[in-house]
Amino acid sequence: MALRFSGTFDELQTKLAVLKGQGQWRHVNDNQKQFQHNNGGVANWYPSTGSFYFQGKDEGRKKLEEVVTAALSDTAGGSAAASEQTAPPSPQPSTSVKSTERKPQASQTTESSRSEAPSPAASGIAESAPTGHTPLGQTFSESELIIGLVGAVGTELKKVIDTLSDRLKVFGYVVSQIRVSDEIITTISTKNKTDHQSEFNRIESMMNAGDLARKESGDNAVLALGIAAKIAHDRTSKTHLPRRAYIVNSLKHPEEVERLREIYPQGFYLLGVHSDQPRRHQYLVNEKRLTPEQATLLMDRDENENLEYGQRTSDTFHMSDFFVRLDGNDDKLKDSIWRILDILFGDPYRTPTFDEFAMFMAFSASLRSADLSRQVGAVVAKDNEILATGANDCPRFGGGLYWPDYDEGKRRIVDRDDGRDYMRGQDSNKFEQARIIDDIIKNVEAVADKEKFRKALEQTRISDLTEFGRVVHAEMESLLACARNSISARGATVYCTTFPCHNCAKHIIAAGVRRVVYVEPYPKSKAAEFHTDSITLGFSDNEKTVRFEPFVGVGPRRFFDLFSMRLGSGYRLKRKDRNGATLQWKPESARLRIQMLPFSYLDLETAAGRLFSQHRKKLGAQS
């Protein structure tokens, strides 16, 4: 039978006095007390059931379990056994100590009921053997956490790392930093190594080495694999390290982010750090002692190398779960980072800002798009009120965009045959670009290799043309929605998931919009170049132009999981007790809202089979 102790926590500490000086007790929550041994073993005790759950390093865990079992073997009111431990219990609403053993009712113990109960095999249900260390339905609280940083070269990431580290320690986390350039790239690249006679040489050498690693491995996520390998290597056992956070400095390619999300789907978060170009340039020149020309060269290369395997910071940045602004206001930066971590650790009183809410609405609007290239959403808002939404899709007669609808004849939800682009089988804009190239080739008789000439033309700005598309852009549709409903957009803010193209920008200016907030860049846009008189990029107090600002806050990707009290992937949030009094949230006893369990679904299935077998026995079923 499993090890149990049915006394109070004080009595338990007295019984386990032999452990004094060998570790420390932690109050995880009302239904979980934890002893962390210096040898790496961890004992969890759940007062509601009296049960124990041991974890940690194999040797340390086994030794701790032996000591606890021996100390409690003669405990009155409790029992001890060295057999397989059961999975920890679900959190209970009350902290009173009660036995969870249920005596079968008379109707359940009759021969008739036993003979009628099918065996698990007969029911087609697997009765798995217990593994002994898999939590199922418990209040897991020791999750590891991986935070990746992305910022353009010249961004002072050290300030962000220091602030993250200090705050994570309040939550009881041990923080490790992984410097990709020093700890990953240098271990896999033997080429492009120099004496690094200057900081410019060092940075350029690391960029070259990273590019080379991606190119020669044929895997643009190779550095992400190195990050995961280092985390695994740093563990002294195959088990996870309780309350350990890793800060990755930094990521430069979209596929690195995708791979880390594949490896750590519940435990990886990407933090985008925005610092404007003048500030980054000044930092590289004044602090890193680069020449102005060298600083500009590195900044241009870092933003987006024209190579599939090159540095693509701009393309990586918009994939962030959170965005913070580094502008010299350290207090504001600290508040932003603290707020993000408080949200991650389940502070029920941290709700969205209006900018966060509006951007999530824009993202939600984008999901209805059937465009062949990308989904873009936009929202027009004023005085913290949503006025209209828009997405990029094809226009329909009568106003607005196409929606799928139920067809009585076909008896299913369908799109109009000649409505959206995918129903027509082509992107009209790309089709017209190809026709332009064909016309040029036909009129240039001196070209010997026309196919080579065609490929050269396809690499020109002809591919940037957008005016031949049938799709109404999201920003335009949001403004048109205002017009259709006699709503003025003068003085409003447009929130869009992607930076507006130059066609949308001129209408945004003409509509009287004062501010544009975006997440994803759009390099093809000539908006800033064409409208220097009316547009200011970045954060500005200029009231005579439309301000195009990068988004700051909790991004749309994790919005639902982190702000929903009940429907997200994490545990439910509570704000009041049974009497209606507000509950106090404390970072010292908080746990990650979304726990990264160190188990696969196969492990959890095994635990489920074991628990189901136990319940069947309680209900009087035959084994």
Verbal overview:
α9 (277-286) crosses α10. With 623 residues, the protein is of the alpha/beta class. The longest helix is centred in the middle third of the chain and has 19 residues, at 199-217. Helix content is 36%, strand content 16%. It is built from 21 helices and 20 strands. A six-stranded mixed sheet has the order 8-9-7-10-11-20, sandwiched between helices. Strands 13-12-16-17-19-18 form a six-stranded mixed sheet. The chain is globular and about 95 Å long. The chain has three domains: 9-71, TATA-Binding Protein; 145-348 and 569-619, P-loop containing nucleotide triphosphate hydrolases (Rossmann fold, 3-Layer(aba) Sandwich); 363-427 and 469-554, Cytidine Deaminase, domain 2, CATH 3.40.140.10. InterPro entries: CMP_dCMP_dom, Cytidine_deaminase-like, dCMP_deaminase-rel, Deoxycytidylate_deaminase_dom, P-loop_NTPase. Residues 75-137 are annotated as: Disordered. GO terms for molecular function: dCMP deaminase activity.
